[in-house]
Write a structure and sequence with these properties.
Blueprint: E1 27-28, H1 34-41, H2 43-65, H3 70-97, H4 106-123, H5 133-165, H6 169-200, H7 203-223, H8 241-249, H9 252-282, H10 287-315, H11 317-337, H12 341-377, H13 382-410, H14 422-432, H15 434-448, H16 454-463, E2 467-468
Antiparallel strand pairs: 1-2
Helix pairs in contact: 1-6, 1-7, 2-6, 2-7, 3-5, 3-13, 4-5, 4-7, 5-13, 6-7, 6-10, 6-12, 9-12, 9-13, 9-14, 9-15, 10-11, 10-12, 11-12, 11-14, 11-15, 12-16, 13-14
């Protein structure tokens, strides 16, 4: 068997792009039952719950509760960040090259979920304490690396099923909405429920409970998961590592998509990281008011998921993400002007409407990119694309940490001071509004030049194996 070559797209796909409405006019021959969409999407609850509990509380547990050496724990987390960035593209390429009678993705999910749940449990029950710092740090390093490797292996493959299972724009919009609704539930549980559990029953019980809920949700998603064994890969030799990376990185559609998604995640992580400082020092909110602010943002986002799904199905994903990015960016300026809890609550609720679109739409867009890549490379390579995307997002998180701390330091922020100088307060307001606004305008610029929409996207969908084309609706 010969290695598949990088194929040029049909001429129709290189024509000028005019109508967004042609996107929804091409549908696939098969549709997915609603129960399968919901079951698959339920995995988002598990992935978000485990990830949020880990990212928010793991340092607090090992440094503040266990009194582990902070510098050593920080060094482990730095090494973990490198490992986290590397394993995503590597595991993605491994998944793409896997061939079994049960498929490429589902075996990793089925076999990896129980070890993932156990690894999460062991994060919160170390056999060592502050009196044994070297064994404690060693245990922490091993536990974190094993946990993250298993999380990547399971969740990356679960995510990679999305563009293969759901092929029409209405399906992808609907399922992406379901996924993000479950993700919001997991996010709220992972952040808000954890203190109630560990303060009452202890950290090991929290770890066990979250592992059962998270692992159970991922197992439920398997009931709704399926793989198409005939999607352009049955008789082809897997693409080599170098060629796979080359095909991915030179894809113009992916380049604009990943640039836009990187900026979305950078803007969101900046707001997320600065919000606790903003509520404490600028608005002087208590913990209950801060929790209400979080609930307002994510509660409204939850409600707006189906609205964005319908908007995307009718107007196209590119038009939807242009609208969502500018809407979210403009509303964030309300945080610069807020003078109290009610102002911030209103701004947060309005921001949730735009945030819902930014949470939902990247899944839809990258699925289209992968469809186009199948026509170029002769294979479906979800693993490579989701892996490289995850690497870029991790890079954004690292940049956010450096950017926020440097700006606050330059503005005179003092962690020991109960009242911050005016320069620090201005910096916090701008970090919540001005800087994210600039990033979100750049998001709109990236997706303005994103080429895969309108007639070009319709041509891609028409050329996919198993596609059927109804009469094109215009207007």
């Amino acid at each position: 068997m010969q290695r598949p070559k990088h194929r040029p797209l049909p001429d129709a796909m290189n024509e000028p792009i005019n109508s967004e409405r042609t996107v929804s006019s091409v549908v696939q021959a098969s549709s997915t039952p609603e129960w399968r969409k919901l079951a698959y999407s339920f995995g988002s609850l598990g992935s978000a719950l485990l990830a949020q509990a880990f990212s928010v509380y793991i340092l607090f547990f090992y440094v503040d509760t266990l009194k582990g050496p902070a510098i050593a724990i920080g060094n482990v987390m730095f090494a973990y960040g490198i490992w986290n960035a590397i394993n995503d593209p590597l595991f993605g390429l491994l998944s793409d090259r896997t061939r079994t009678r049960w498929g490429r993705r589902r075996p990793y999910i089925a076999l990896g979920t129980l070890p993932l749940a156990l690894a999460f449990c062991f994060l919160w029950r170390p056999p060592f304490g502050a009196a044994q710092p070297v064994p404690l740090v060693t245990y922490f390093a091993l536990a974190v690396f094993v946990w993250d490797g298993l999380y990547t292996l399971v969740i990356l493959n679960w995510t990679a099923l999305f563009p293969e299972m759901f092929q029409s724009l209405p399906e992808r919009s609907r399922v992406s909405g379901y996924r993000q609704m479950f993700s919001i539930i997991g996010l709220i549980l992972g952040i808000a429920l954890a203190p109630l559990i560990y303060e009452t029953w202890g950290w090991p019980v929290m770890g066990l409970l979250f592992a059962v809920i998270g692992g159970g949700a991922i197992f439920v998603s398997l009931l709704g998961s399926r793989e198409r064994m005939d999607r352009g890969r049955a008789e082809t030799q897997p693409i080599g590592l170098i060629d796979s990376l080359k095909f991915t990185l030179v894809n113009r559609s992916f380049a604009f998509y990943v640039a836009g998604n990187f900026l979305i995640n950078l803007a969101f992580t900046i707001v997320q990281a600065v919000l606790p400082f903003y509520t404490k020092y600028v608005l002087h909110l208590d913990k209950f008011q801060t929790s209400l602010l979080f609930l307002a943002v994510f509660g409204v986002a939850f409600v707006f998921m189906p609205i964005w799904a319908r908007f995307t199905a009718s107007r196209g994903a590119r038009q939807a993400i242009l609208t969502a990015s500018l809407l979210f960016g403009v509303i964030l300026w309300g945080f610069a002007l807020s003078r109290g809890f009610l102002d911030a609550l209103a701004t947060g609720a309005l921001a949730g409407a735009g945030l819902a679109g930014l949470m939902m739409l990247p899944d839809v867009l990258i699925a289209d990119v992968i469809d186009e890549d199948q026509l170029r490379a002769g294979q479906r390579r979800e693993g490579a694309y989701f892996g490289i995307q995850a690497f870029v997002i991790r890079l954004g998180i690292s940049i956010e940490s450096v950017l926020v701390t440097r700006i606050l330091e330059a503005a005179g922020y003092d962690p020991e001071a109960a009242i911050q100088p005016d320069t620090a307060l201005v910096a916090l307001r701008l970090l919540m509004s001005g800087l994210p606004f600039v990033l979100l305008v750049l998001v709109a610029v990236a997706f303005w030049f994103y080429p895969l929409h309108g007639e070009r996207l319709a041509a891609v969908r028409q050329a996919l194996p198993g596609a059927r084309v109804p009469a094109v609706r215009r207007g």
